[in-house]
Fold this protein.
Amino acid sequence: MPLVDILSAERFSTYLLWANNDFALGERLYSYNVQLSADFYSSLHMLEITLRNKCDAALTAAHNPAWFDDAAVLIDPYQRKCVQDARSLLLRERKPASHGQMIAELNFGFWSSLFGRSSSHLWGTLRPMFNTGGLQRPTIAQKLRDLRRLRNRIAHYEPILAQPLTALHADVLNLTSWMSVEAAAWITTHSQIAYPATPIIITDPVTGQSAFDTALTGHLPA
């Protein structure tokens, strides 16, 4: 059975468009998208774990282990709802809502939001997490927003080939290395993909249509 019949014509249409209606190339692009998504998932996993543990350590030291129940720490309604949802889920699953369980249950969106404008009062506490000079809160916030969007696309099995993957992967490595050189080294060791230096999907200057850059065919799975 052709891959398009398994995926559905609608899901496959994006890859077919990029492949200029070449079904074989479309299937290779789909496989490449899966490979890149898997590679990114492992890198994002290490970034998220490092981020949440560093944030928790900083906020625990500045306040106390119950910082996520302190209204003076979490003033954003979204953050308080994340905490409420995490605790409710643990209780429904009959798991203890311990400090460790709560930290593990809070999602990437929650941790990213700690660097948003509504939480700028936390920047003085969180800034020492990052071992690099000249860093500003909006820089961290923007990079985390971009990576969160990428993570959501991967989680929903959506195409990521048109994203600036090389730059995003560099952001993952930089953010992680600023917090932990060892964690960044893990990412480098376990990353299996050679990311192209140029965009995978380009825009035809004549038609304005997005298409795969055939100069990168060597990156595709056979």
